[in-house]
Amino acid sequence: MRSLGQVSVMMLLVVLSARAFADPDMLQDVCVADLTSKVKVNGFVCKEASNISASDFFFDGLAKPGLTNNTQGSLVTAANVEKIPGLNTLGVSLSRIDYAPGGLNPPHTHPRATEIIFVLEGELDVGFITTANVLISQHIKKGEIFVFPRGLVHFQKNNGKEPAAVIAAFNSQLPGTQSIATTLFAASPTVPDDVLTKAFQIGTKEVEKIKSKLAPKK
Ligand SMILES: *[C@@H]1O[C@H](CO)[C@@H](O)[C@H](O)[C@H]1NC(C)=O
Ligand SMILES: *[C@@H]1O[C@H](CO)[C@@H](O)[C@H](O)[C@H]1NC(C)=O
């Protein structure tokens, strides 16, 4: 199964890199990120070419399932430019997402990338919502693929009895994530209650309750 997964992911990457319109195009072979540089550019500045090695293009952090014993019952492990400096300017990245039975990857968006997932194990109910407010949803299982278009709100839920896992590919070195609930109810400084009471047509008490539940754990 692993090899089927790997082959599929490589195919996805080829497709995505041939059509990597989300990140700007590269102007040199490689621009391995100097993650320590204080200089800010659109992406990361390049390391000295003499200082590049295979380790800049390597990451083994998706080999094992992530721990899903948290309130949502899911964990996203990113393999983006922050983990793989060699991805800088290349316009692609991956994540692994693990789901406990009942686990949810809550509604969120990636402002800089389309996402395509490949189910490694288990089954998921997935969906995204268009700007016309139409829900496009599907039940997917091991070996199957689903796509979440760039910028649209989407989610995955494991309604099965077994753990589930996917590999997600993105046409950005750093797709960015805005999780709707935490963006609105756990921002810092906080979004004013009167914005949230009016937007959601609920009272201040309900807003405060949600805020306290989603507050970052200290
Ligand atoms: C090369 O990389 C090492 C380790 O990251 C760093 O300490 C050193 O300053 C780098 N040298 C150059 C010339 O960039
Ligand atoms: C999750 O499990 C790990 C390993 O079993 C443990 O170290 C960690 O404290 C647990 N986290 C929570 C939030 O229970």
TrEMBL record:
Subcellular location(s) of the protein: Secreted, Extracellular space, Apoplast
Cellular component, GO, one term: plasmodesma
Gene3D superfamilies given in the database record: Jelly Rolls (2.60.120.10)
Signal peptide start-end: 1-22
Keyword Metal-binding tagged: yes
Residue positions binding Mn(2+): 108, 110, 115, 154
Membrane-crossing residue ranges in chain numbering: none
One Gene Ontology molecular-function label: manganese ion binding
Coarse class of the protein's main subcellular location: secreted
Name of this chain's protein: Germin-like protein
Lineage, highest ranks first: Eukaryota, Viridiplantae, Streptophyta, Embryophyta, Tracheophyta
